[in-house]
Amino acid sequence: MIPRHGPPEHLDIALVSEHASPLAVLGGVDAGGQNVHVARLAAALADRGHRVRVYTRRDAPTCP
Questions:
Q1: Largest alpha-carbon pair distance within the chain?
Q2: What pLDDT, on the 0 to 100 scale, is given for residue 30?
Q3: How many domains does the chain have?
Q4: Which of 3, 16, 18, 22 has the most CB atoms lying inside 10 A of its own CB?
Q5: Where are the beta strands (DSSP E) in the chain?
């Protein structure tokens, strides 16, 4: 049998959102298009079985 050399079924994906946190409250000063896009993209990739990590800046003292 010939080994398959295609892409793996599930990927580990890192997204970097340096200007807006996907956790920012909509309507707030830090909320805009980028944070909504990153949050939806991460959710869609996770729904497909991928492991997604989002790296962003802290937008509240209670966040890690």
A1: 58
A2: 61
A3: 1
A4: 22
A5: 12-17, 51-56
Is residue 64 a part of any domain in this protein?
no
| 47: in domain | yes
Question: Token pair 């003292």 is at which residue?
Answer: 61
Gap between the Cα atoms of 64 and 58, Å rounded = 7
pLDDT for the residue numbered 45: 97
pLDDT at 10 over 70: yes
Residue 18 and residue 35: Cα distance in Å, rounded?
Answer: 10
Find the domain containing 18 and state its range: 12-56
Residue written as tokens 């994906």? 13
The percent of residues in the chain predicted with pLDDT above 90, rounded, is 34
Dig out the tokens for 33 from the structure: 């298009």
Report which of 43, 35, 32 is spatially closest to residue 18, judged by C-alpha positions: 35
